[in-house]
Design brief:
The protein is α/β, with parallel strands linked by helices and 429 residues long. The chain has twelve helices and nine strands. It folds into three domains: 2-211, Cation efflux protein transmembrane domain (Alpha-lytic protease prodomain-like), CATH 1.20.1510.10; 218-293, 2-Layer Sandwich (Alpha-Beta Plaits); 298-424, Nucleotidyltransferase, domain 5 (2-Layer Sandwich), CATH 3.30.420. 55% of the residues lie in helices and 15% in strands. It has a six-stranded mixed β-sheet, sandwiched between helices. It has a three-stranded mixed β-sheet with strand order 1-2-3, with helices on one face.
Length: 429
């Protein structure tokens, strides 16, 4: 519940920044338009339209974030996060249209040289103020946008940084127009119109991709897949799909696991994967895990043994204190020895079995055959979806496989001895 509150607070922070930025941009656009009109500076008027386009996109972000922070309802069980994207799409269309209109004005002005009698102190001052304001807004929008993963705020920050360059060009245009250099005003108005047009098309295109559930974060997809593959019990990852919903991401993935895994354990594994994704990756709103049996029809097993003698190796009486471990791959008809592991922790007194488990965990074990196992090792293996079977000391690995296939081995459902007994006999696993 706490995580949900954090998300709502993040959305509200984004709203505040967007609405403050909208108000500041509105004042700046009005100042540019008024001064441009009074001093007949077409360049400044065009820049006012550019600021107006920015105002619409910033306001769209704030409005979208405000809608997105509304509570989920029965009618909208997934929330209203996509409203931010929808509003951005509409605003993008309007901005594109404004860019086309300003382009026409720029072309008409291209061959007209304005006559300025006095040095344009006020237009120059407004342009300098615009540069400073654009820098401050860009920094704030970028910081908050990244902290709450608001794509619209991040996009607005990029445009605000672009506004710094635009304002510098406008400032140069005002000064060059004062010097009566031809083609300057028209050229700069055309440049501004193209920037507005580009901004509009970018908003439209990005919004379309989000609304069509395009996957725009291949790096995150790869990171999630790699992380899931390292989780014990997961035999493979079939698909990882990510779709954007406003500032949040929805993740769906298919994991492969052992065909012998029970429904209860499969559900527990899915919960484990879901918790891992939500706890280790930011801005994930929901995770859906689909569990399927692995097509590889084999299981991995580990057996504590007294010696290294292939399938004739004899079972040791205790998991943690065995000198060697044989790791098997058991298929429907064939059995193969994948590896022999030497117990390098034999000289230690406590938790030897736990250390062995950590050393061989990359094999993604499904089964353990042992005659005795301590409490910590037992629960660690069970938590990682490893089934534990009780066998008699001295049996060969070959005999174990035969009994397992004939279903003559009893499954261990609790530790064979407790922690205190293990430590007192210096045999804790």
């Amino acid at each position: 519940m706490e995580k949900k509150i954090d998300k709502i607070e993040g959305l509200k922070l984004g709203q505040r920044i967007a609405f403050i930025a909208s108000f500041v941009t509105l004042l700046l656009a009005v100042a540019k338009a008024a001064v441009g009109y009074l001093f007949d500076s077409k360049v400044l008027v065009a820049d006012a339209f550019h600021s107006g386009a920015d105002l619409l996109t910033i306001f769209a972000s704030g409005f979208g974030l405000w809608i997105a922070s509304r509570k989920k309802t029965e009618r909208f069980p997934y929330g209203l996060y996509k409203v931010e994207t929808l509003v951005t799409l509409v605003i993008g269309v309007l901005i594109t249209w404004a860019g086309v209109q300003i382009l026409r004005d720029g072309y008409d002005k291209l061959f007209h040289v304005a006559y300025v009698k006095e040095f344009p102190i006020l237009p120059v001052s407004v342009s300098v103020l615009s540069i400073i304001t654009a820098f401050v807004l860009a920094r704030k929008e970028k910081d908050v946008g990244k902290s709450i993963n608001s794509q619209s705020l991040i996009a607005n920050a990029s445009e605000s940084f672009l506004d710094i360059f635009t304002s510098l060009v406008v400032l140069a245009g005002i000064l060059l127009a004062y010097l009566r250099i031809p083609y300057v005003e028209g050229s700069i108005i055309i440049l501004i119109s193209l920037l507005i047009f580009k901004l509009g098309l970018k908003n439209v295109w990005t919004s379309f991709l989000f609304l069509l559930d395009a996957n725009l974060d291949a790096e995150l997809q790869s990171d999630i897949e790699q992380d899931i593959n390292r989780i014990y019990g997961v035999k493979g990852v079939g698909e990882v799909m990510i779709r954007q919903a406003g500032p949040f991401k929805m993740v769906e993935c298919k994991i492969l696991t052992s065909p012998s895994l029970s429904l209860y354990k499969a559900h527990a594994l899915a919960d484990k994967v879901e918790d891992h994704i939500t706890n280790n990756f930011k801005h994930i709103e929901s995770v859906f895990i689909h569990v399927e049996p692995s097509k590889e029809n084999f299981v991995s097993a580990i057996v504590p043994v007294q010696d290294i003698n292939g399938m004739d190796s004899k079972v040791h009486g205790h998991f943690g204190r065995a000198p060697y471990f044989v790791i098997l791959k058991i298929a429907d008809e064939n059995v193969g020895i994948e590896d022999f592991y030497y117990n390098e922790f034999l000289g230690e007194k406590k938790h030897v079995g736990v250390k062995v488990i950590k050393a061989v965990i990359w094999h993604k074990l499904d089964l353990l055959f042992t005659s005795r196992i301590g409490e910590i090792s037992f629960h660690m293996l069970r938590d990682n979806f490893v089934d534990i079977y009780k066998i008699d000391e001295g049996l060969s690995v070959k005999d174990i496989i035969k009994k397992y296939r004939n279903q003559e081995i009893e499954q261990i459902t609790e530790p064979t001895h407790c922690i205190e007994e293990s430590q007192s006999s210096v045999s804790q696993s």
